[in-house]
Amino acid sequence: MADVLERVPVFVNGREIAPEAIAAEAQHHPAPDADAAWQAAAEALVVRQLLLDEAERLAIDGASLTDAEGRPLAAEEALIEALLADQVKTPKADEAETRRFYDANQVRFMSAPMVEAAHILFAATPEDDLAYGLATGDARMAIRRLQNDPSAFAEIAQERSACPSKEQGGNLGQVGPGDMVAEFEQALFALEAGALCLEPVKTRFGVHVVRAGRREEPQLLPYELVSAKIADYLEEASWRRAVAQYLSILASNASLEGVEIAGPEGPLVQ
Fold first, then answer.
1. Which terminus of the chain has fewer Cβ atoms in its 10 Å neighbourhood, N or C?
2. 219 vs 223: CA distance, rounded Å
3. pLDDT tier at 263, thresholds 50, 70, 90
4. Cα–Cα distance, 47 to 12 (Å, whole number)
């Protein structure tokens, strides 16, 4: 990052935001490069100052505000919270609105597919070529045996598996997306119910023999089960839009230098 003294000065209503403050704030704004992080930090501090100035102008009192655990908020945070609560009003999402969203976005409300899984793990690290090769050979031998005698799965798991699930005959219970490593899930979800994967499945934990059990295909969740979450989502989105509009009004009425504050219709160049 260029020296802070080389940066374009940033002013809010004639008062400069110290370059050192922007540099410190930039640490909290992940960005593709240092310049983008600096700009994001400058904009955040400008927005903060606009809100604090407006809270002062309106004589907002945030002294009684607390966090989720009942602790008093820091003075500036309390002022901003109190200001937004006083000035930004949004309606509650009604039944018709939540129902329309549900009907138009049903793909969002499908349950995850679930598969009962069982495996036999031959432990080895991919970095150890010899051990990994031996584990792969052991898995292939187990698969050939299971092709001839599917009932032997639990027995082999108890004798050979390096996973604690061996005590349950290799049974892992129901598995959904994200529960297991990607290679394991790819093999598991490609199987029909009751089918054995005919190729060893290689992961960072070793080499697995994988068998699928009963499957539960995705189903549309009932509206009644998700309506409250939909309402929360719609109200949060409405609130964010309203805050953006409020900030654009504050920015348009302020004297700003060195930043662009985006309004609902695009950046407000200052």
1. N
2. 12
3. low
4. 9
